[in-house]
Amino acid sequence: LNARRGARSTTALPPTAPTTSPAPLTRTGTLSLADAAPSAPAAATIEAFTRAAQRLAPHLHDIGIELTGVAELRQAIAERYCARGLPTEPDEIMVTTGALHAINLILATYARPGDRVLIEQPTYHGAISLIAASGARPVPVSMAEDGWELDAVQAAMRQLAPNLAYLIVDNHNPTGLSLPAAGRERLARIISETRTRTIIDETICDIWLDEPLPPPLASYLESRRDLVITVGSMSKSFWGGLRVGWIRAERSTLAAIAAVRPTIDLGTAIVEQLASADLLRQADTVLPARRDMLRARRQLVSSLLQEQLPDWTASPCHGGMSMWMRLPAPMSSALSAAASRMGLVIPAGPRFGVDGTLERFIRVPFTQPEERLHESVAVLAQAWRSVTGSGTPDAHALVV
Question: What is the pTM of this model?
Answer without folding.
Answer: 0.89
